[in-house]
């Protein structure tokens, strides 16, 4: 076995020992034994997606029916898992669990995350797993993924609803509120485009799983931007000059992002993300 192979095998063995130790400690010392064990097992060092049964336990623990103290405990446990690890698999799987919860749990969870602080939770700007060249590529993608999730929450804060799980409302807004929401949505779309994997990250199955969720969410984001821009195009000549200048800037940015998103979806096709589903096609580019 090569030196690199031996180091990798040793690292996996140490990770497994660390996971086992953490699980055993949770069983003995924690008031939230089942939840803590599920968090550790869902975000362990094994280089595969989080197991569904553990994700379900976590999502159940943070639903609107649970005491807020329980939800806060879960958020703190996930944040602690993120902040203490230098292993790409643990960091990525923790982000995937949070992303799944954003998609599948009621909006009260997002409100609790905002109260906790997105800058604190997703502060992975210096995260780096330097165990191998592949791990460097994985680390780079994890940092961009964290930025996307942070922006997703910020967008929820501005829109007051989740653009992925709820009805798009940009057609119903007056001009000032529309401008604010479109700016937030365009910033979120910018983060989507930044999630294109590079190097070894392209072929990592766990990253592909997370990236598929990001790519699929871009559809509703794009539709919300498109509907919003159409709304102020319809009343452009009725706007005050100042508003018209802002509207034109947003419209130009939307056109540029549509071009980039079209290329982004072609890239998704090339690496078999989406497997031919409609979300990897823009029917009409803005001009």
From TrEMBL:
Entry GO CC: clathrin-coated pit; clathrin-coated vesicle; Golgi apparatus
Family matches, as InterPro entries: ANTH_dom, ANTH_dom_sf, ANTH_N_plant, AP180-like, ENTH, ENTH_VHS
A GO BP entry: vesicle budding from membrane
Domain ENTH intervals: 27-163
Intracellular or extracellular location(s): Cytoplasmic vesicle, Clathrin-coated vesicle; Golgi apparatus; Membrane, Clathrin-coated pit
Any one Gene Ontology molecular-function term assigned to this protein's record: phosphatidylinositol-4,5-bisphosphate binding
One Pfam family in the UniProt entry: ANTH
UniProt keywords, alphabetically: Coated pit, Cytoplasmic vesicle, Endocytosis, Golgi apparatus, Membrane
Listed SMART domains: ENTH
UniProt protein name: ENTH domain-containing protein
Species of the source: Artemisia annua (Sweet wormwood)
């Amino acid at each position: 076995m090569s030196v690199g192979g031996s180091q990798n095998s040793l690292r996996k063995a140490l990770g497994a020992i660390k996971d086992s130790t953490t699980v055993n400690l949770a069983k003995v010392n924690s008031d939230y034994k089942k939840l803590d064990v599920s968090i550790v097992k869902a975000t362990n060092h094994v280089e595969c997606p989080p197991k569904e049964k553990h994700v379900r336990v976590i999502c159940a623990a943070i639903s609107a029916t649970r005491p807020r103290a329980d939800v806060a405990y879960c958020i703190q446990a996930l944040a602690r898992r993120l902040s203490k690890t230098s292993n790409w698999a643990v960091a990525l799987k923790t982000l995937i669990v949070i992303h799944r919860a954003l998609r599948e749990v009621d909006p009260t969870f997002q409100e609790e995350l905002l109260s906790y602080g997105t800058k604190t939770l997703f502060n992975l700007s210096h995260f780096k797993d330097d165990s191998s060249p592949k791990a460097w590529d994985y680390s780079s993608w994890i940092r961009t993924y964290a930025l996307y999730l942070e922006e997703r929450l910020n967008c929820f804060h501005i829109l007051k609803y989740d653009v992925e799980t709820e009805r798009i409302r940009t057609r119903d807004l007056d001009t000032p509120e529309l401008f604010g929401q479109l700016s937030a949505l365009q910033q979120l779309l910018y983060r989507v485009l930044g999630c294109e994997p590079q190097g070894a990250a392209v072929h990592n199955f766990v990253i592909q799983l997370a990236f598929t969720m990001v790519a699929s969410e871009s559809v509703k984001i794009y539709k919300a931007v498109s509907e919003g821009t159409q709304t102020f195009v319809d009343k452009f000549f009725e706007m005050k000059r100042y508003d018209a200048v802002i509207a034109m800037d947003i419209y130009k940015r939307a056109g540029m992002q549509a071009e980039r998103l079209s290329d982004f979806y072609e890239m998704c096709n090339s690496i078999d993300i989406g497997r031919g589903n409609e979300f990897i096609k823009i029917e009409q580019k803005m001009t």
